[in-house]
Amino acid sequence: MDLTRRLFLTGTTLAVAAPALLRHGLAQSEPIKVGSLVPLSGGGGPYGPEKAQAHKAVVELVNKQGGVLGRQVVLISENSETNPEAAVRAARKMIDADRVCAILGTWASSVTLGIMPLCQEANVVQIFTGSSDTLPNGDKKRLCYNLQPLNKAWCVALADLAAKRGELKIAFAGPKNDFAASMGESFSKALEKVGGKIVGEPLYYNPNQVSYRAEAERLISSGAPALFLAGYVTDLTPVYRELVRGGYQGKVFALSFAVGPQFKQAVGTAANGILHGSPVPPVGKDTYDAYLNLVGLKPNGQVQNSYGCAAYDEMNLLLLGIASAKSTEGPKIAEHIMKVANGPGERVTTFEQGAKLLAEGKTINYDGASSSADFLPNGMLKSRDFALYEIQGDKDVLLTTTTSEAEQ
Amino acid sequence: MDAYLVAILTIAGIYIILALALNLQFGLTGLVNFGVVGFFCLGAYASGIATESFHAPFVGGLCVAMVTGAVAGGLLALLSLRLSGDFLAIVTLGFAETIRLIFNNEDWLTGGPKGLLIMTRPVLADYSRSANAWMVLAVVLTGAVLTLALMLRLAGTPYGRVLRAIREDELVPATLGKNVFVYRLQSFVIGSVLMAAAGSLYAHYVQTITPDNFTTPVAILVWMSVIVGGPGNMLGSVIGALVVVTIYEGSRFLTPWLGFLDAEQVSALRFIVIGTVLILVIRFRPEGLLPEPKHTPVVPATRRPALKG
């Protein structure tokens, strides 16, 4: 058979068009792909696994109940390594090879910001937990939702506690990263509002040092009657050890996630007297208990998996957003997440309840496990519970719980 | 999937430039430079600051990056090139770490840990997302091909021969009247310029850079590309970089078959695979996948004994 020009043209056209035709035919039954990009190693390593587990648990549950819009959900998991370079490559793979409609679970602000240009360009929704005050800036297409209050909000709660304890002169120290840097600025503002003052310049140190003696000596010699150490468990432990070794006697304020069991084990009884606070899940609330049961934990009246419960909300919000938008296009999903999260509508706490009501044409208002999951117009969280604790006899003793509203 | 291949080829192109630059320094001249990532970082930030703070076009940023790389490479070389192997390795490693820490702390210049957002891209305006990706790939591959051509040319000339002689035994070229220090300095500076250029391409490709993007593991990957490919062989470095990037990125696609491992273990597996490949290559093929061609001197034909009679 001779290869005529007409045959050649028809043949090539068909060959080129085939993938597109197939894709169109398959689109209705194709699974919905969702990316989970959590820190399984690096600075966020202690918090990533609970997020990955929560994402997986929700997806398995939803698939068992019949999926979203009749389609199965496929979870693509990658490790962000708490490093933007690795995260960008992982996000490329998720966006271009897997064609996910959303990337959930990023934790470090540098990672969330690092993958933001890719997600914006490809219209991929991002739902994450992050506190850096610069997070909303890069979200030009309004595709981002944050389940953690920004630093401005937590510092108000901590400064209030400090003032109540009569500590008005506090020195600040933290690792040189985006989170701690904006924490330092916000804390000094919040402290000034309650009549206090930061002693000296805020001290930023480089994480992953072999020794923190010089930093500890500088804090001690500043003569500050109290310190606020905004570090993570990996750097707070050595800094605190050096402070104790150097004979520091003042009060120490810290962030709850840094003074967990790992920290207490490392420093022993020296941990007594540390005051700490952070956003907490609403202990005792039905939604939080439902999350704990889902991942196989028992509600015990204590804070457990404070990032896992946020990850549970990340996945529920996304899937409800898809169910409400009846689409997997990023901008549409993002628009509908706002509707299902803020309402108005009937209160729902799981995907199953929400999807049922949405199918009946009703409106819903998702109430989450980490907070009520209501957002400001820029996608940042409206309010979340804060708890303030004191370590006494190796245990966290709850001092007070407040609900902090974010600034508009 | 095709879009992903474009992305991976772009990353591979950047690694090829880095590997070729290191091959000039280590493979040809025998300079142990562990500070690859320092020059890479310097180039990325120099280019980013030039285009974002001073509104230079992409090509301007690239030139600024190369000049910065040359100046930094020259200064570091003047300070440290008289040091031999191991000491040079430590100095360059320290240099890379110093650059990263400076950029992390000088917020006014680099944005510090918040990172630098780069809007300038080496693309024509108003094209689709996939067309943009192809354009970036074309720019990076052009850079890689130009670098390869330059390196092949350098390695084949008498100049390349002097560099190899310095690597083998610097006393011999010195005896022949070659200024060994100047040759080493030139080799180091050319390598640094290319690494900085790769940094510029990287910065305008990923569009957000933070000091965390430039940690030692990047330098280790470049070193592995050179070792696996075959030190001294320029095509070997290209193959080496492709092999390393393929293993590094390709291992992601094993996840569906590794259901018994969680994501954390799979990501650790990636480094185990790369480490194993390195050990196997060093054990069974220490000269690399493409060994350096042997340069045997032309032996003049032995004179036949004169015929008697």
UniProtKB/TrEMBL annotation, chain B:
Location within or outside the cell: Cell membrane
Transmembrane residue ranges: 6-24, 31-50, 56-79, 133-155, 188-206, 218-248, 268-284
GO MF term (any one): branched-chain amino acid transmembrane transporter activity
Entry's Gene Ontology cellular component terms: plasma membrane
Keywords recorded for this protein, A-Z: Cell membrane, Membrane, Transmembrane, Transmembrane helix
Protein name as catalogued: Branched-chain amino acid ABC transporter permease
Membrane topology note: Multi-pass membrane protein
Pfam families linked to this entry: BPD_transp_2
Main subcellular localisation: membrane
